[in-house]
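User: Working on a comparison across species. This one is SMODS-associated and fused to various effectors domain-containing protein from Alkalicoccus urumqiensis. Can you predict its structure so I can line it up against the others?
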Amino acid sequence: MANPIRARQLGDDYQKIFFWLKACEFLEENSNIDTISYEDMELKSLDDVVIRYKQPIKDFKGNLIKREYYQVKYHVTYGGSITLDNLMDPKFINASKFSFLKKVKEASFSLNTEDEPGIAILVTPWTIHPNDVLSTSRLIDTQDGSFRLETLFDEKNKSHVAKAREKLKEHLDVQNDKELESIIKLIRISSDSSTYSNLVNLLNSKLSSVGLRPINATQRINPYISLLARLFQEGKTKFNKEELIQICKDERLWTGTNIMFSKEVPIGIRSFMHRARNMENNTSSMICLSEHFEGRHLKENFGWNEDIKRKIDEFLTQNLTEGGSYCIHLDTHSSVAFTAGYYLDPKSGVKAVPIQKGLTGREVWRSDSTISKEQYPQWKVNQEVLNEDGEHIAIIIEMTHSALEEVENYISDKGLSVKTKVRFYFEDGPNASSIQGGVHARHLANEILRTLKNLPPEDRKKRYHIFGAAPNGFWFILGQLSRSFGQITLYEYDFEIAQEYRESINLP
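Assistant: Here's the predicted structure for SMODS-associated and fused to various effectors domain-containing protein from Alkalicoccus urumqiensis:
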């Protein structure tokens, strides 16, 4: 059994690290966050970390949010999980009297105001138990961790959901579904959050990007944990941006540097909510496409070309100006990243560079360097003629994962008339660190361009079907170079269910 004193200390430190992660979002140049608080006193029931926005943001369902109240609950081991019963158990959040749900109820009158609507977010490294009603009845939305109200309030009286609904009403001492909904709609569950060490590493990767000094891993003391503890002792728990920067300057933690150039405007495209829910805080403009998706899958009533491609084009046309410089966040499907690059090709008059997330945090993938391609791992290229009378060209890019077998299965299953299969791969095989930044990505994309230009003239007129696995920064850069490809069909790989490729966007 874990030492209870050590467990409590780790929990407190985990909360402080989470505060600084949110502070990094706060310190972004174009952040929409007005203030950030630690152990906030406004709503004592939900006080761990509180974010207040200058202008309300919208969740993926269109609901306005002005305040976010985070309850950060760390667990030393993975011996438990989130269940409906746990949400009704005070011990689950290390409380003596009130469960997380009752704390939300206590705060609901404040959170449900029209002028400053708020939500309560439970943050925990534990996951939802696969056999619990939360999972089996799909009560929690994978997009943002909210309760799926249309499922919870299904008007059935004898289902598992109906039993869960009655249990919730009894626990919260409410009389009807309307009262219950007014509480449940405020909740978000951020499950499967990072382990303690991963959270520290994630923070360290973000600090320098907003002008803060990275944590020295060779030292035992984490200055950010110590600083927040001291500020709490002094009664300083709520900060605006200027106050927090001055405090960091006083403690010699402020460097003032940023990964973006001053002239660059941050924009974003999002189709995944996980770890991108606060993109609004880091961008001057962004588009959220998540309402069109259920997890990674496009919902049945939407089309990749009719809806997704059209909205990408409209967003970029309306929000980017010729001669401008932009950094683009791409928390999205690879097809969307490629398409954004396609529309922002060199002839667009817009200078745009992707921001790539990786193991060491965010990095702007610039490609304007004189480093020669010989300094980086290069493609191995294999061309194979499958059918001399084929009408299509299959392009396979294996950067982070293998794709050859799945593509061959797709071609066979769909009866795709492929003349030539062109495979790009690394001698040492695919892995997460096979690409070394924007310069490397540009060299690799240029090599693909040169290879395809050397195909026979009749083949260059055929439709290119592009499959593969690579970081979105690479797909964006390849998209910028793809205007000369002619007709293009992009594909998404279904990692979760079918484990197969599915057609997505056609270009132009």
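For your comparison, note: The chain has a mean pLDDT of 88.

User: Helpful, thanks.
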